[in-house]
Amino acid sequence: MEANLDPSVKGLNDHGDAPPQGLSGSQPLSQDHPAVRLAVRDVDVAYGEQPVVRDVRFELERGTIGCLLGPSGCGKTTLLRAIAGFEPVSRGQILIRGQRVSRAGWTLAPEQRQVGMVFQDFALFPHLTVARNVGFGLRALSRRERQRRIDELLELVGLSQAARRYPHELSGGMQQRVALARAMAPQPDILLLDEPFSSMDAELREQLAREVRAVLKREDVTAVLVTHDQLEAFAMADRIGVMNAGSVHQWDTGFGLYHQPADRFVADFIGQGALLPAHVLNATQVRTELGRISGAQPHGLEPGSAAEVLIRPDDLVYDESSPRQASIVERAFRGAEFLYTLQLESGAEVLCLVPSHHRHAVGETIGIRLEADHLVAFACPDSAAHRGHREGTAL
Ligand SMILES: Nc1ncnc2c1ncn2[C@@H]1O[C@H](COP(=O)(O)OP(=O)(O)OP(=O)(O)O)[C@@H](O)[C@H]1O
Q1: How far is 365 from 351, CA to CA, in rounded Å?
Q2: Quick check: keyword Membrane in the entry (predicted)?
Q3: What's the rounded Cα separation, in Å, for the pair 261 and 393?
Q4: What is the pLDDT of residues 183-220, one digit of tens each?
Q5: Which of 3, 164, 187, 371 is spaced 20 to 30 A from 329 at the CA atom?
Q6: Is the CB of 73 under 6 A from ligand 1?
Q7: Is 265 left (phi over 0), alpha (psi -120 to 50) or beta?
Q8: Which residue's C-alpha comes closest to atom 16 of ligand 1?
Q9: Which residue in 216, 249, 261, 262 sits closest to 235, CA to CA?
Q10: Which residues fall within 8 angstroms of residue 267, CB to CB, at 6 or more apart?
């Protein structure tokens, strides 16, 4: 997972292009860093009286791929539509290249924003060839320039040989690449991708997500992807915003979301794991029945108080010589590994990933050892600390 995250995005500094002029009603904000292509600031979106996006803020620098990830109905598409200009914001503002394009009471029309969109169903023109689909948004260019850009894009997405074919003659993955080339052709400031791989099976989805990421990176495109599939988000995005009930709970790398979730929702939504009762020893240590775990300073957790610690399946190591024994209550074969659900002496359950040559039956006992790199602890639900720090106590 970590390998898919592009560390270079942190230090993007090759910007310096001036924001475009002439967007009606928009004002350049001189205090903004020119590297920032998209700024979503304290945005609320409502359908009538019903708020569906609340207090969302994030920024994307040029060439960065952001992702809105969350369960169905959490407001991802609504937020994407607000960035595209299809929905007005009821509070806050949206800026593209430093130009304000949305604020309460005023929305720059979608066609006046330099925004490209790739939809779930590709939305290709069935009666146009691949080349003409890609060239559709390039009518302002001369014939020769248009052809040059079409050729360039088709080569970029690996479809030069398919220029004269029609969409129905292509596979789903190829059609999606045509849709991507068409959206990228006019060089939009921001590319928005709404569940672009949802009609494909899981394996192809991840592979396409990696391919699309490579294409976007080659053209230095700034993009926002919407998905409910975390593997797709990990494969494609530099930064991921986990949404629930209209709010972004955490904006982070995939690695950060998995290993240092900011709250219980993120801990539960991203990856697998179990919460194990723990006793807070001091500012940097807790004790669990599997042993001590150390980490950064606990927020709102008093020494001596009770807590719960997130244990991921990869925090436990199979170790035949370990004195800590646990019994297998469930087993799932994952190819290279088994995912065992283990019951500890106290009755608490944890998950453990074990190489699949260690094959054990449900009911057997195995030795395990704790090897946690990160400490993630939450106040117990009924504690005063939890009531005071409901929105997260990641350590
Ligand atoms: N045009 C609309 N009018 C009223 N309510 C709407 C409208 N569109 C969406 N909603 C509601 O707003 C909420 C957020 O919907 P949205 O489509 O943004 O969620 P989502 O996270 O993209 O979900 P999904 O992954 O299922 O597409 C839902 O409760 C939905 O029912």
Answers
A1: 14
A2: yes
A3: 9
A4: 989 888 899 999 888 877 777 788 888 888 998 998 89
A5: 371
A6: yes
A7: alpha
A8: 75
A9: 216
A10: 261, 273, 275, 310, 376, 378
Give yes or no for a contact between 225 and 65, defined as CB atoms under 8 angstroms apart. Answer: yes
Q: Is 344 in the pocket of ligand 1 (CB under 6 A)?
A: no
Task: Give the Cα separation of 308 and 378 in Å (integer).
Answer: 5
H or E element in which residue 293 lies: strand 291-294
Cross-strand partners of 379: 307
Cβ of 53 below 6 Å from ligand 1: no
Q: Assess whether the C-beta atom of 48 lies below 6 angstroms from ligand 1.
A: no
- Ligand 1 atom closest to the Cα of residue 79 is 18
75 CA to centre of ligand 1 in angstroms: 6
Q: Which amino acid is at 350?
A: V
Q: How far is the CA of 246 from the centre of ligand 1 (A)?
A: 10
> How long is the chain?
395
Residue 242: the pLDDT is 97
106 lines ligand 1 (CB under 6 A): no
Any idea of the CA torsion for 7, 10, 11, 15, to the nearest 10 degrees? 120
Q: Which one of 44, 45, 50, 52 would you pick to mutate in the ligand 1 pocket, going by the greatest count of ligand atoms within 8 A of its CB? A: 52
Query: So what's the ipTM on this one?
Result: 0.97
Residue 382: what residue type? D
pTM of the predicted protein model: 0.83
Q: Is the CB of 178 under 6 A from ligand 1?
A: no
Among the ranges given (221-235, 314-328, 370-384), the one the predictor scored with the smallest mean pLDDT: 370-384
| CA 24 to chain centroid | 32
CA geometry: angle at 120 spanning 227 and 4, to 5°?
Answer: 40
The reply to whether ligand 1 has any atom less than 6 angstroms from the CB of 71 is no
